[in-house]
Amino acid sequence: MMDLPSPGPTDAFRRRFLSGQPLVGSFIKTPTVHATEILGDLGFDFVVIDEEHAPIDRGQTELILLAARAARTAAVVRVPDISRILGALDDGAAGVLVPHVASAARARAMVDACRYRGGRRGFSNSPRAGRYGGLGMWPHVDQQDAAVTAIAMIEDPEALTEIDEILATDGLDGIFIGRGDLAVAMSAAGPDAPPIQAGVEKICAAARNAGKPVCLMVGNAAEAQRYRELGASAFIVASDQAFMRKAAADALESFARVRSA
């Protein structure tokens, strides 16, 4: 038996993310496998399983991770808290998005939870990530430390003042800019309001200086291109719920004359 698995979506995602390759993903907010299979089949680079804002528990996440593997797309988990990182990684996630990383101390804590070497991740090679014991101790440690992507969510005003220190955290792979949370926290008119845009530009500049990739949620390709010019490289568009709602609304609208006849 080979001691190391062949590279798959989980292994490749971190390499692609760190290289700044443009990536397109979407949120998964329904606790079923089907949307992930569809998005993977269409060619989405990754999905983000939303445990923070959607009714998705660990058991459902595990099944969605299997669906992502079957569809050959990477699956990242947006965890509700640092305490959920271990379960997501043991179950085979390509990485995690960790909310409200507003300080270097929290960035250090999230990275520690993601890494074996230099961190504090609890060891077990018996879950899926270790091929149910198929990988030995150190091959499993090496594989996971090389593959797991640790992404901090910058979505608090306090993070703007400590962004350089956050980005300097050893082992932090990149950041996600939460424009919506920033807008609410700063009482701005919306995610495109001038104060938020100024914050995004500051964060992107700091990330460029630190050599760390940036991920954002965007509404369309034109918006993605605008942020691409600021240095962002990974883009999350909509969610399974949003895609379904838009398609359903368009279909219903097309029947307006039929329904009024």
Automatic annotation (TrEMBL):
The HpcH/HpaI aldolase/citrate lyase domain, residue ranges: 27-244
Pfam families hit by this protein: HpcH_HpaI (PF03328)
Keyword tRNA-binding: no
UniProt keyword annotations, A-Z: Lyase, Metal-binding
InterPro entries: Aldolase/citrate-lyase_domain, HpcH-HpaI_aldolase, Pyrv/PenolPyrv_kinase-like_dom, Pyrv_kinase-like_dom_sf
GO molecular function, one term: aldehyde-lyase activity
Entry's Gene Ontology cellular component terms: cytoplasm
Family indicated by similarity: Belongs to the HpcH/HpaI aldolase family.
Protein name as catalogued: Aldolase
